[in-house]
Design goal:
7 domains, seven-stranded parallel beta sheet, about 25% strand, flat
């Protein structure tokens, strides 16, 4: 039974591989070591003389009566590079096996229990084993062998041969075998006088670079096309035929001061001295006849050329010549006919100016001709710049002057003797003129460019000095005399005056007199300002530029800056201090009271604000820092945003502040309806001394409670929804602290929620939120408009100065300016930084694959939505609300098509995945929270849980506040394993540390909302590791939501650590991407 030749041919690596395998078989290169119907082992000689080990594992195909190659291995490089196909050595081995196949015993490997069907040693491992075995003898050998190299110098090519030995040397007849022995550390008997253990360390140190050269270059040289026509088969294993690249490498590798060279004949060669410098050939020029000259060069120069170097043999020496010799001298030698190059009279001047300097420098040059009469006068480049078109244009003309001859620099090609010239200098002059007048048009050697102040400024600052290096300039007075001034250094003084911050600016008198115009130019991003005396004041990278940036960030006009004293609100102190410290060119001084203010605000941990006695030992370290930060801000009539990660105890930090100020006034907390009773409960637990009143119930009842609380309460807690209805009832109440909890509820400054909170009268304002920025920078402005009204200017100014540059243009300087403004007024700590004892949480993404019927429904709706969107784009219709409704429908189909179609019965892949996951968690004794945006989906899961007999709680927007607290306490203490929660209703204000598994059934557009929901369980009090599962329907809009979230979140990260996405702010491209 044989191996199919058709199989061999179809599985060979390349089209020619099979034919080469046949050639190897015919040449007798294959030696079968062992073979049967299960395994073949052979050694195959390559063209280079190296031997490769081949192992093939076979199996029997009884249906077709043939043997199949199951596995194969070869130690050749081709197998390593292309392991999926047979190399020529494997093909040759298989064909050799077929030749003796009839005698191979047929059977299975089971018939030979002692022998594996396919056993071989990896070639790299085998080489390591062989070298390790030889190391003791290698290390014990102290006598060093020599490598003798002979360079055979032929007219058409050069090749290297080698001998090894001690006193007597032996020819290396097979370089491939020699290389393998070097790699493997093998011993070999060359003759009676030489048994050599092959190792780099067994050779002299000076021979090792050449040994490495042999090992690196032999394989490459034996296959080069340039050497084949000079090479017999025996030559291929004995010599390295040098191609130009290898000549360069050989010259670099040769370390000896002598080299043996054999010319045309084989042998040991004659020793030549190596000279590592360029060979200076003899050159001369003489007159041949009237008007005809001849340049004479060596006629029979012996040279072998690489790419960047060359070897020249002369008078028993070999010169290793560099790239300059190869480029300047060798081309002349090669071009000469019998050592002669003819030169006409008209080209003598060009030869004298261009070639003669090289000949004089690099050769032994003599002349029988008076060359002085051909010398070219030095180049004088002249540039003429003039006004034209009534002063609207500048024209520039460059001319080259050689003695009495004048040529246009950009004119037609010069002819005859005029060719001689300083071409390098000419090209440099052309280049710099072309760059200087790049914005103009070139016509008949004349550039024309608009005559503007910008060009005059650029000419004086950038071009005049460069041009003068190459030419003489004749130009208009305005260009020749333009003066560029650098402004005097600006100094800023800062001090406090009562509740105001005073800023004094010291600037040069000339700049001050025109400061308004200078700053207007800076605001317009101009590079200079033209002073009244005609000079140019540079505005780039100096103190005026930095002053303009600070003025712009403070909302100050040029007229404001020009005033003697500038009055600012004290809350600008932190920004100014940070901005001036980052400045590279502004000098500034700070008064003692200003420095004290900054120290107080920065070093809150060293403040004197002590915790109330009842809370000492209760607050953690970072919570005490937050308490002192709020007290410090309040002491200076400033507000702030406590933006700690969800679950870090923002509530107790605020209660500590309110308790410390008990008796100084009434306070109010505004929060979502679901958190009102939570605040009351936390206050009763931690600060029972505060008289806390929750404003709940119908309007008349709330009115009575507000009136009563205004008289004797310490703390009023109300909801955003109640506040906007009751705002008139608070008009006469002056609060000490106004606290906006979950401040993202007033992120839209145009809503009644935001307007109502900002309408409250109070001394100190603080916002609490785990996500200061959920979607857009406008949200950040709205919160700051509450805590520090006017600090971030009007929304229109904020949008122009920060929001648009940062989001639309990716302006890093605007982002940095905003960071400096807001940094101190936001305190944000992350759980990973402050709660090192909090158990880790692990997130796992679970993908469900749509059922066939579900896929049909989804694809039809996705196509319809995309078509509708494309139609609206084509018709210029803005139907965003309708499109977003269709996207919501797609998301519901991902959850369960039955949410959209009452008669649907095709199943929901995600629902089944979810129920299986719930079952596993419950069986494992886990308690889990399951969040979904769709309450209808929670109802479906509720029905499945009931049918499965699994107990659960469910919380939606319809759940009353009192019931919420009861369910939370029950879940944390009883054995109910599942809590179904609507994302919006239960994403905040709940402490559900009884759960150790969180399931997000559907991804919400806003990743912050999902994170908040997760942190109902991952918070202080959690003792178990938390596993979070995110369920995604593969190949749907849900995958796109995850990707889009990530790309949008990076914008917010420029300003503050927060993640988010805004469904309402999606572009058309974003919407199309969702549907792709």
């Amino acid at each position: 039974m044989r191996i199919s030749v058709i199989d061999l041919k179809s599985c060979a690596q390349f089209g020619s591989t099979f034919e080469r395998g046949i050639d190897y078989l015919k040449k007798g290169y294959v030696s079968l070591v062992d073979y049967n119907a299960q395994r073949i082992s052979a050694n195959v000689r390559g063209n280079s003389g190296a031997y490769y080990s081949v192992d093939i594992a076979l199996s029997k195909d009884a249906s077709f009566g043939k043997l199949i190659i199951d596995k194969w291995n070869c130690t050749c490089p081709a197998h390593a590079s292309y392991p999926d196909g047979y190399c020529k050595h494997v093909v040759a081995t298989a064909l050799a096996f077929n030749a003796v196949a009839d005698s191979a015993p047929v059977g299975s490997a089971d018939n030979q229990p002692g022998k594996a069907a396919f056993a071989f040693t990896d070639p790299v491992l085998r080489r390591m084993l062989m070298r390790s075995a030889a190391e003791p003898r290698i290390n014990a050998q102290t006598r060093k062998a020599r490598l003798f190299t002979v360079l055979e110098w032929h007219r058409e090519y050069a090749r290297l041969s080698f001998r090894v030995g001690y006193e007597r040397a032996y020819v290396v007849k097979n370089l491939g075998q020699f290389i393998e022995m070097m790699r493997n550390g093998q011993e070999y008997i060359y003759g009676k006088s030489l048994t050599l253990l092959h190792s780099m360390s067994n050779f002299r140190e000076e021979d090792r670079p050449m040994l490495q050269f042999i090992m690196d270059e032999y394989e490459a040289s034996s296959g080069t096309s340039a050497s084949w026509k000079y090479m017999s088969r025996s030559d291929s294993s004995r010599y390295i035929f040098l191609n130009p690249v290898q000549i360069d490498r050989f010259i670099a590798a040769w370390s000896s001061d002598t080299i043996a060279i054999a010319y045309k004949t084989e042998g040991k060669g004659e020793e030549h001295q190596v000279v590592r410098e360029n060979f200076r050939i003899r050159t001369s020029i003489s007159m041949e006849s009237e008007g005809q000259y001849v340049l004479k060069l060596p006629e029979n120069l012996k040279h072998i050329d690489g790419v960047r170097s060359s070897m020249v043999s002369h008078d028993g020496k070999v010169y290793f010549c560099d790239e300059q010799f190869c480029s300047d001298i060798l081309p002349l030698v090669k071009a000469a006919t019998k050592g002669r190059l003819m030169v006409s009279e008209e080209d003598m001047q060009l030869l004298s100016s261009v070639l003669l300097p090289k000949l004089e420098h690099s050769t032994r040059f003599t002349s029988e001709v008076d060359l002085s009469r051909y010398e070219t006068p030095p180049l004088q480049a002249e540039l003429y710049i003039e006004q034209s078109a009534g002063g609207l244009l500048l024209t520039a003309r460059l001319e080259f002057v050689y003695g009495t001859k004048r040529y246009p620099a950009f004119g037609e090609e010069r002819d005859g003797a005029a060719h001689a010239g300083d071409y390098i200098a000419e090209e440099c002059a052309r280049q710099v003129v072309s760059e200087c007048f790049a914005g103009g048009e070139l016509s008949e050697n004349i550039f024309a460019i608009p005559y503007t102040e910008d060009f005059v400024f650029d000419f004086a600052t950038l071009w005049r000095e460069r041009l003068e290096q190459y030419m003489t300039i004749y130009c208009e007075d305005s260009l020749r005399t333009a003066v560029i001034r650098r402004p005097e250094k600006v100094s800023i003084g800062l001090h406090l005056d009562s509740d105001l911050l005073m800023m004094d600016i010291s600037i040069g008198e000339e700049e001050r007199s025109e400061l308004a115009g200078i700053l207007s130019s800076l605001s317009a991003k101009k590079r200079f300002f033209r002073m009244k005396d005609g000079t140019f004041l540079s505005l780039e990278g100096n103190s005026l530029s930095e002053l303009s940036d600070i003025a712009d960030s403070l909302g100050l006009s040029p007229e404001d800056i020009a005033a003697d004293h500038i009055r600012l609100p004290a809350y600008r102190a932190m920004y100014l201090d940070a901005a001036l410290k980052e400045s590279h060119s502004l000098d500034y001084t700070r008064s003692q009271d200003f420095r004290k203010l900054i120290r107080d605000l920065r070093n809150v941990d060293d403040s004197d604000f002590e915790l109330p006695e009842t809370l000492k030992g209760v607050l953690r370290g970072y919570q005490t820092t937050g308490y002192r930060w709020m007290r410090t801000l309040a002491a200076h009539n400033l507000g702030g945003i406590l933006a700690d990660d969800m679950g870090l105890g923002k509530t107790i930090q605020v209660l500590a502040v309110l308790a410390a100020n008990r008796g100084e006034g009434i306070n109010i907390v505004v929060c979502p309806s679901s958190l009102v009773l939570n605040w009351v409960s936390e206050a009763a637990h931690f600060v029972p001394e505060l008289n806390t009143v929750a404003i709940l119930g119908p309007a008349p009842f709330r009115a009575e409670m507000i009136a009563e609380a205004a008289k004797n309460a310490d703390l009023i807690v109300t909801s955003y929804d109640s506040l906007k209805r009751d705002i008139e009832l608070y008009e006469d109440i002056e609060f000490l602290y106004i606290i906006a909890d979950e401040a993202q509820y007033m992120k839209n400054h145009a809503t009644q929620n935001a307007k109502a909170v900002k309408a409250l009268n109070g001394k100190h304002r603080f916002a609490l939120t785990g996500t200061p920025v959920e979607n857009t920078l406008a949200e950040l402005w709205s919160i700051f408009d509450f805590i520090l009204p006017g600090y971030l200017f009007t929304y229109g100014q904020f949008r122009k100065r920060y929001e648009q540059p940062i989001i639309r243009d990716g302006d890093d300087s605007a982002a940095q300016s905003l960071r400096l403004h807001i940094a101190f007024f936001i305190m944000r700590r992350l759980k990973r930084d402050v709660l090192t004892e909090l158990p880790e949480k692990t997130e796992t993404l679970l993908e469900a694959v749509m059922e066939p019927e579900q896929q049909k429904v989804y694809m039809a709706n996705a196509a319809m939505t995309r078509d509708k969107l494309l139609r609206q784009i084509a018709e210029g219709i803005s139907g965003r609300i309708e499109i977003l409704a269709l996207l919501t429908k797609l998301r519901q189909i991902c959850c369960d098509p039955a949410l959209v179609y009452d008669n649907y019965s095709g199943g929901s892949a995600k629902l089944e995945l979810c129920m299986e996951l719930i079952s596993q968690c419950v069986s494992g004794g886990h308690k889990l929270l399951l969040f979904s945006q769709f309450t209808s989906m929670l109802s479906v899961i509720e029905q499945r849980l009931t049918a499965a007999g699994i107990k659960y709680y469910i919380l939606t927007g319809k759940t009353k506040p009192a019931e919420r607290l009861g369910m939370v306490e029950a879940f944390n203490s009883d054995d109910t394993p599942v809590f179904l929660i609507s994302l919006k209703a239960g994403g905040t204000g709940l402490n559900l540390t009884g759960a150790d598994v969180v399931i997000h059934y559907d991804p919400w557009w806003n990743i912050s909302a999902q994170n908040q929901a997760t942190d109902r369980a991952h918070r202080i009090g959690q003792k178990k590791k938390l596993q979070i599962y995110k369920l995604i329907l593969k190949g749907t809009i849900e995958e796109r939501i995850l990707a889009l979230q990530q790309s949008k979140a990076e914008l917010v990260d420029k300003i503050i650590e927060a993640d988010g996405d805004a469904l309402s702010s999606m572009s058309i491209d974003d919407l199309l991407e969702l549907l792709s």
